[in-house]
Write a structure and sequence with these properties.
By secondary structure, the chain is of the alpha/beta class. The chain has 7 helices and 10 strands. The strands form 3 sheets. The protein has a 5-stranded parallel beta sheet, sandwiched between helices. Helix 2 packs parallel to helix 3 and helix 6 crosses helix 7. The chain starts with a strand and ends with a strand.
């Protein structure tokens, strides 16, 4: 497996290279957005992981290029993920907030790659999420975490408190796609899918 990891922190680059290479394969590193765009244009990767604070060229443009090549991309952020971030047009395949440990980053990479190769579709009401395409059918893109939250709601399982941003963004995306399915909190039951106006 080949991973491109980009961060302005050179010590972090070396740390991740030594962490990823033994377990995941080859890691190529970059320290600014210009390097990342050049490398993405000229090489193939199984996944790209970039720091949201990369200098010179921002993560949104890099995400657009990675999406165009169908290369999974994870963006590392310095605060919690919010609905505004999840509504961006060039949405990465997932976000991961600092601080995180090696298990969390490995888990994020494996989760994104598993979804990309799954061919799975989750259907509820008129909502349909193409898991491997990271999108709502005939609608906007979704992250791996949004998909996990939607699956948890459909299966009646709990999800982390920070998943509430995903609920909000999914409802907005369902509305944008003209769907009637929504996720709603039901007292005593938790989050469930409902048809609008229920």
């Amino acid at each position: 497996m080949r991973i491109l990891f980009a961060s302005p922190e050179r010590d972090l680059l070396e740390c991740f290279k030594s962490l990823f290479d033994p377990d995941l394969g080859e890691t190529v590193t970059a320290f600014d957005g210009t390097q990342v765009l050049y490398i993405i244009a000229n090489e193939q990767f199984d996944a790209v992981i970039i720091d949201s604070a990369l200098p010179r060229i921002g993560y949104r443009e890099i995400t657009e290029k990675a999406n165009a090549k169908n290369t999974p991309i994870i963006v590392l952020t310095y605060g919690p993920v919010n609905p505004h971030m999840l509504s961006e047009e060039n949405l990465p395949n997932d976000y991961l907030s600092f601080p995180f440990n090696s298990e969390m980053i490995f888990g994020a990479v494996k989760n994104v790659l598993a979804k990309k190769s799954s061919g799975e579709v989750i259907r509820v009401g008129d909502a349909e999420i193409d898991v491997s395409g990271f999108c709502i059918k005939n609608g906007p893109r979704v992250t791996a975490t949004e998909t996990d939250v939607f699956r948890a709601v459909v299966e009646g399982k709990a999800f982390p408190v920070d998943g509430r941003a995903c609920v909000s963004s999914l409802n907005a995306k369902f509305a944008q796609a003209g769907l009637k399915t929504r996720i709603k909190y039901m007292t005593g039951k938790g989050f469930e899918t409902v048809t609008e106006n229920e």
